[in-house]
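The following block was generated as part of the benchmark described in Methods. Ligand: fe (ii) ion.
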Amino acid sequence: MALALLKFSSTPDLINFKKSIIDSLIDEQKHFKLYEEKLNSLGYEFGDFPINDYFWKQAISIKKPEHFSSMMSLTFEAANLDFSYYFYERFKEIGDLESAKILKTVFEDEISHVKSGVHFMNNWRRDLSLWDYYRENLIFPLSPARSIGISYQARFRKAVGLDSNFISNLESFDDGFKITKRR
Ligand SMILES: [Fe+2]
């Protein structure tokens, strides 16, 4: 997100877009802090576990705001709607209400992040459908299947303002990759 702020111009048409990135960035730092504090309370430090660099590898190819919104908001953050809610429920089930609360915060903020991605993509898409515009701007090897997390829930897509054409295309989409079959 910080990279996007540096990469994209500050022309008047992008001011609101960049302001929304700043809002999301503040939330993401809050999430990181919550995760880090939880790790610390369990006796670990950030860095004690290897992490995945998949996102960073993909982020290199972002050249335009619509690439950013397609990749970040409509794909990675959209998948995190399912993941965060899934883990919120699992933590609640085992009685770890502190962790459940963290995941609930992440989920609620993620709703607003994806919503703002949908908003800007709708502003930019001209006469293309949102689905086609998204497909056009999502850089390979990413595919719409990456926007689906564990325990996919259509109601979250409706909540962020994705239209029914988008949702039905997403649900029938198959990229043939094994890793993205995680529903
Ligand atoms: Fe987010």
